[in-house]
Amino acid sequence: MSYMQFLATATPAAEVLSGTRQMGNTYQTHRRDISTAGSYALPHFHLVGTPSGQVSGTFDATQKTVTYLYERNDAADVTIKYIDMDTGANLNRPERLGSTTMTSNPTVLSGTKKEGLAWSSSVLPVDNYDFVSSTNPTNGVFGDGTTTVTYSYRRKNAGNITVHHYERGTTTELYVPTLGGASRS
Questions:
Q1: What SS3 string covers 23-76?
Q2: C-alpha closest to that of 44 among 7, 10, 17
Q3: Rounded to an integer, what distance in angstroms lies between the CA atom of residue 67 and that of residue 34?
Q4: pTM to 2 decimal places
């Protein structure tokens, strides 16, 4: 089993420096947000403040507790866009699945204190549009690099509207469309 497989399957617990046959010997605890000799680093975290308790000393008959406090690192934000693929315009849609609040602004998932945590995005219903495609990935882990996910939609087809311009009392068309939209009168 590799070290990374071990970390993925291990249950976090307090580190114990055994006092068995250690009376009078020295001990040294280590912060775990950086690698030190014979130890590993805690990924995605950094030490906050000064540890409580004696981080080093001599084993004696009393039990000791040393506490290091860590905070999750910041990561880059993830931006999710929902666009009209023909115009590039941002589309008005629910803020998230099940939401009744509508927005046309891109969704920004803040990476503040989220390094190493999972994020995900999804296709959202957009009135009068069909979903066409998305850029990859549509989910991942907050990390160093800026990530933008784009969901592309195309406006649905609608029925044509026919407009007649008749002379009163007849069905003779008076308007004759020409190329480019100009009319001949």
A1: CCCEEECCCCCCCCCCCCCCCCEEECCCCECCCEEECCCCCCCCECCEEECCCC
A2: 7
A3: 16
A4: 0.74
